[in-house]
Amino acid sequence: MALGNNALTTIERLKQFNGIDEADTSKDFKLEFLINSASQEIENVLGRKLKKSQYIEKIKGNNRLTIQTKNYPLLDVDSININGSTVNESDYSFDESGIIEGIRPWGASGLHYGISNFMVQQSKNIEIAYTAGYVLPKDETTEEPRTLPYDIEAALFTMVNGLMALSNGAAGLKTFSISDVRWEWDKDYMRSILPSLMQHRTPRF
Question: Per the omega criterion (within 30 degrees of 0), is the bond before 137 cis?
Answer without folding.
Answer: no
